[in-house]
Amino acid sequence: MGHDQRDTLKDEQYYTPFYHNTMVRDRFFHILRFLHFENNEAPPNRDDPEYDRLWKIRKIFNNLNSKFCELYYPSEHLAVDEVIVLFKGSVFWQYTPKKHKRFGIKIYKLCDSLGNTYDMAVYLGKQRKLATEEITSTHGIVLQLIQRVEGSGHKLYMDSYFSSPALYDDLLERKINVCGTICNERRGGDESGHAIKPHVIEDYNAHMGFVDKSDRMVNSYGIARRTWKGTKKLFSHLLDMTILNAYLLHKSCDGKMTHKKFREILVRDLILQSRISRSVAFLGGRPSSPGAQVSRLELIH
């Protein structure tokens, strides 16, 4: 659906046989309705000091983060920045007036020169506390994102939102070289109150846009829809990001196809595998109608 952007699936004017031949529309809506990643009937205690606002999708988020690092090693030059997943209904949505997408879920990303997302973290508010540490500042966010590349001599680029002399000192101790802009009023400047700006502006401009590059590619064929809940909206973004990372991994191995072609082949392969699985399952008898399958789905839930 990311290749065929439309406002509705119900208008005959936008009818496309490919979708109907793959899955009945009502079944798709039912699957989307009942798509959950945790047991909502047993939520964690909100008064718990270690309460995680992302608990409904935390397992998938952490699993993807681990796989990104396990299957790919980033290039020498890295960039850390924030992106906004457009959404207004979540309990941890952010308003960022300087961004094109002003309302949404804020995600901090560490990307390399190809645009591959190597690590990420969702902003959950100042009260978020993990079992091991509390992340309340941009300083801590950067240290969290670079944990898996410490001691390898990477070069990291960031803007003034993250930069501070204290952070640069910490990163240097971890054998990570840093380049970025900095605000004059940022704490930790010289005695005159003016921060010292680096003179490698050309180098900064050449490498700072890695996260923006990744975000543009992710949104090129995005599957998200306005009516989805916060967890589903975030899941759709993670799914698009995972497909992009898979494509960039293919490209790094001298793959020649385009991003769009890669996604199209992926879709057809998934449909083919699904049909093979159903054929094997139906060897014991006649398959039931799609309407009966939807009715059973409603009964179960």
From TrEMBL:
PANTHER family: PIGGYBAC TRANSPOSABLE ELEMENT-DERIVED PROTEIN 4 (PTHR46599)
Classification via Pfam families: DDE_Tnp_1_7 (PF13843)
Protein source organism: Cryptotermes secundus
Domain PiggyBac transposable element-derived protein: 12-187, 196-247
Protein name: PiggyBac transposable element-derived protein domain-containing protein
InterPro entries xrefs: PGBD
Membrane-crossing segments per the record: none
